[in-house]
Write a structure and sequence with these properties.
With 188 residues, the chain is an alpha+beta fold. The protein is built from four helices and five strands, in the order αββαββααβ. The chain has one domain. Strands 1-2-3-4-5 form a five-stranded mixed sheet. The relative contact order is 0.13.
């Protein structure tokens, strides 16, 4: 009888432990799997927007990647080449003082274009990340690189918004200009 009771107790405890752990996993995994799908959709939209805006070879140096950071939200990152692809390599045109200013202006236009694309994608497609809580954040990190004769210049732009702001934009409680004004933007 004592042997039977021990086995029954072990079986009951085993069932409780397995039942608890099995019950917790399915609740967490479908949300993460769903979020993974949503991240992939957002990556795809951002990649397509960048390809359409910049075109040409070497415009974007890698495709957009997104990652979920528990307790924070989702971060997306991509890298944009600010230099004209015609000037890259050993057979590129040499820089003169006259065209150096034009090159800098073009680099600034490309930097602003990348920032505008990120802002528009965040405003128009941020709601895709519906698995995020209202206080979680969506951030887009834009890495830029510009090749010059004696140096390579790198800069970073970080745009971020909490999900509440994106939801307000989707409900049209705020317009695009208000949304962009309320975005957190850091450049260095």
């Amino acid at each position: 009888m004592r042997k039977f009771f021990s086995r029954a107790l072990c079986g009951l405890l085993g069932t409780l432990v397995l039942g608890t752990s099995l019950g917790a996993d399915p609740q967490g995994k479908p949300q993460l799997e769903k979020l993974k799908e949503q991240i992939e959709i957002f990556e795809s939209v951002l990649n397509q927007s960048l390809t359409q805006a910049f075109g040409g070879p070497f415009a974007t140096l890698d495709r957009t990647r997104g990652a979920y950071l528990p307790g924070y939200g989702v971060v997306f990152a991509f890298e944009v080449n600010l230099s004209s692809w015609h000037d890259l390599g050993p057979f590129g045109s040499s820089t003169t003082p006259g065209n150096a200013s034009n090159e800098r202006d073009e680099e600034n236009r490309r930097r602003e274009k990348a920032k505008l694309i990120a802002e528009e994608t965040l405003a128009s497609y941020g709601q895709t990340l519906s698995q995020l809580g209202p206080n979680e954040t969506i951030a887009i990190v834009i890495h830029t690189v510009a090749a010059h004769p004696n140096q390579v210049e790198r800069s970073t732009i970080v745009l971020s918004s909490d999900k509440k702001l994106i939801d307000q934009r989707q409900r049209q409680a705020i317009d695009q200009a208000d949304f962009i004004r309320k975005l957190s933007t850091t450049q260095y």
